[in-house]
Amino acid sequence: MTKMIGHVEYANDEKEATELLIAYSDEIGLPWGVIPLAKWAASVRIAHTESDKNGLVAAKKTLDDDLFEQRRAERVAAREAAIEGQGDSLVKAAGAKTLAGSLLAQCQHHYGQANNPSFTFGPGMSEADYAAFQTEWSELGELADERGYDQFTDFYALDIQNKAALGKKQVGDTLATRGWQGNVFVTILGARFNAHIDIKKKK
């Protein structure tokens, strides 16, 4: 029988806490045996140790968090597996140390991790380097098409733009600002990725 202290419910001891949390982990579909021992011990301790931050509700939340992380890890593994073959092969074909290969690998990583599809790539390029990179990126798209890498489509790069003049000076909700930039795109299994490339010394 649990105990109430104020508005907080606690297990009476470690044994009761363990029994209650095993039952809860089964209820939410998280086999308690897969939880690392240190994390499990911490959840049990939270369930029966009197403290403003402890109690059964707080202990159950740690298991909810464990379940969320486990399912996220499963989703990430599935996403990475889905594109591993084509992605690794295409990066190798581009040359992992080339700008195009490096950017494609980064887009592949962002897809697998379900990260923000809009990000800044590299420390910046000169106008001439960016023009060469536009060609390189376009050629990579043609190579993907020729080899049937249908998970990777719509490779293209916009011409350089003055983002500040276009009213796009801020980077999202951050204090970082944009000046002259190029934008490079690729679609991976329907997810559109947009890499921002800062341009150095634009006149």
Please characterize this protein's 3D structure.
- With 203 residues, the protein is an alpha+beta fold.
- The chain has helices at residues 14-28, 37-48, 56-94, 99-113, 127-146; strands spanning 3-5, 8-10, 118-120, 152-157, 161-162, 180-188, 191-198.
- The strands form 2 sheets. Strands 3, 4, 5, 6 and 7 form a 5-stranded mixed beta sheet that branches.
- Strand 1 (3-5) and strand 2 form a beta hairpin.
- Helix 1 (14-28) crosses helix 3 (56-94), helix 2 runs antiparallel to helix 3 (56-94) and helix 3 packs antiparallel against helix 4.
Quick rundown:
Helices cover 50% and strands 17% of the residues. It is of the alpha+beta class.
| Class based on secondary structure composition and strand pairing | alpha+beta
Give helix and strand order, one letter per element, not per position.
Answer: EEHHHHEHEEEE
- Structural Rg: 25 Å
How many beta-strand elements?
Answer: 7
Secondary structure tally, helices: 5
* Average pLDDT taken over every residue: 91
Assembly state of the chains shown:
single chain
In one word, what is the shape? elongated
As residue ranges, the low-confidence spans are 172-176
Distance between the termini: 75 Å
* Percentage beta strand: 15-25%
Largest sheet: 5 strands, mixed
What percent of residues adopt helix (DSSP H or I)? 40-55%
